[in-house]
């Protein structure tokens, strides 16, 4: 049963946030009146520099933080009123690494299958499928401690996939990876999405990835959404407004909507640019 106003026969939105607001102890609003709706089957990117409020917003959606103000629904289920119902529908891969290096890849995924109540008879098959989906079949019986950074990220993806979520939430899934590993992570995400029709909500501060893989993106800065549309429409829009024949990137759009604030206090954003240049050299 859903409890929103979805017309009969129509799939409710995978995620709806209305006026979501969250403040930590110091009173500053980490998330400040967030409104967004993610359609079922969409790959949606929540973008912004460090400190924008992406992780906080996502932790409210996943029920790890309460929703003190506003409303969040996952496939029509109110996150505040039906936490268990929401948890059954989604998988969350946090930013901090969560795989156990002293277990094999297969053991790590099996652990998640047990925790998420995958029926015992289906477990071995579903674990093997999840490992296959992320390209880890051959490495499945090696200790996760021997994996590269990209393989660990794909292992975490397999852990999230083994419960067959309808909404997969990934917080900075490619942070710190080299360009080849980043592409590999994304290709596995896109392949699983195509095969299962699941919805993907991803945060990233890599604008180039968002431009390439996300159906729509929300540009977030200081707890608020500054722009929301397809990457294409956002960049086209800025090109028209500029009218100087240049081809702006999503990063240019971000600078345009966030204003000069980014350059003054956006040390983190400049660091990201530096990381990207370094990564490009390494690649
Ligand atoms: N546990 C916490 N206690 C206090 N402030 C926090 C905490 N976590 C995050 N913040 C603050 O909330 C804001 C948003 O942080 P976060 O949601 O982590 O942003 P992002 O994921 O976009 O980098 C930042 O100003 C950050 O310093
Ligand atoms: Mg974060």
From TrEMBL:
The keyword Nucleotide-binding applies. SUPFAM superfamilies: P-loop containing nucleoside triphosphate hydrolases (SSF52540). GO terms for molecular function: ATP binding; ATP hydrolysis activity. Pfam families: ABC_tran. Keywords: ATP-binding, Nucleotide-binding. Residues 273-283 have a biased composition (Basic residues). PROSITE patterns: ABC_TRANSPORTER_2 (PS50893). Residues 236-283 are annotated as: Disordered. Transmembrane segments: none annotated. It comes from the Bacteria. Residues 15-247 form the ABC transporter domain. This is ABC-2 type transport system ATP-binding protein. It comes from Nonomuraea maritima.
């Amino acid at each position: 049963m859903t409890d929103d106003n979805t017309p009969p026969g129509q799939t409710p939105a995978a995620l709806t946030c209305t006026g979501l607001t969250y403040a930590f102890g110091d009173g500053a609003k980490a998330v400040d009146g967030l409104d967004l709706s993610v359609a079922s089957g969409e790959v949606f990117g929540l973008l912004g520099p460090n400190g924008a409020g992406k992780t906080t917003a996502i932790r409210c959606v996943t029920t790890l933080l309460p929703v003190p103000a506003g409303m969040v629904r996952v496939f029509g289920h109110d996150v505040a009123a039906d936490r268990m119902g929401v948890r059954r529908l989604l998988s969350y891969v946090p930013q901090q690494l969560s795989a156990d290096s002293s277990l094999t890849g297969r053991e790590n995924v099996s652990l998640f299958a047990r925790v998420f109540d995958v029926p015992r008879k289906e477990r071995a098959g579903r674990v093997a499928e999840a490992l296959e989906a992320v390209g880890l079949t051959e490495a499945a019986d090696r200790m996760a401690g021997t994996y590269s950074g990209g393989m660990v990220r794909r292992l975490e993806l397999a852990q999230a996939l083994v419960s067959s979520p309808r909404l997969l939430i990934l917080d900075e899934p490619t942070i710190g990876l080299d360009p080849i590993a980043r592409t590999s992570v994304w290709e596995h995400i896109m392949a699983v999405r195509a095969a299962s029709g699941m919805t993907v909500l991803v945060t990233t501060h890599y604008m180039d990835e968002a431009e390439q893989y996300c159906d729509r993106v929300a540009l977030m800065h200081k707890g608020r959404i500054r722009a929301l549309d397809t990457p294409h429409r956002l960049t086209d829009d800025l090109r028209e407004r500029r009218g100087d024949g240049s081809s702006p990137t999503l990063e240019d759009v971000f600078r345009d909507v966030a204003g000069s604030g980014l350059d003054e206090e956006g040390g983190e954003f400049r660091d990201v640019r530096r990381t990207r240049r370094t990564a490009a050299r390494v690649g």
